[in-house]
Amino acid sequence: MLWIAIFNLGMIALGAAVGTGMISTARTESSLGWLYAIVGVTPPPREKTRLFALVWIVSLIAIVDGLLFMLVLLTHAVM
Fold first, then answer.
1. What is d(CA 13, CA 77) in angstroms, rounded to the nearest whole number?
2. Where in the chain are the domains?
3. 44-52, long-range: CB < 8 A, 24+ apart
């Protein structure tokens, strides 16, 4: 349970750092460049990099928390 809270706090801190500009656009663009190359999609324009980084962070939080919730819900129903 502690690891879930640490993950969520870390991702929220990362999102806040990206959103406020504490992490440079060049570093964010470089990180997203690797992600887009792996997924195989076209990277966004430079002025939209922060927004797309925030979308990826929120999506990751939703997916991880949703999967953990379903795991707990399903294992509780079976037990």
1. 34
2. 2-78
3. 49/25, 50/18, 50/19, 50/21, 50/25
Checking if the pLDDT of 33 tops 80, the result is yes
Q: Can you read off the two tokens belonging to residue 25? A: 């656009």
Eight-class DSSP state of 48:
G
pTM, two decimals, is 0.84
CA dihedral 56, 21, 24, 10 (to 10 degrees): -50
The set of residues, in sequence order, having a beta carbon less than 8 Å from that of 56 and lying 6+ positions away, is 32, 35
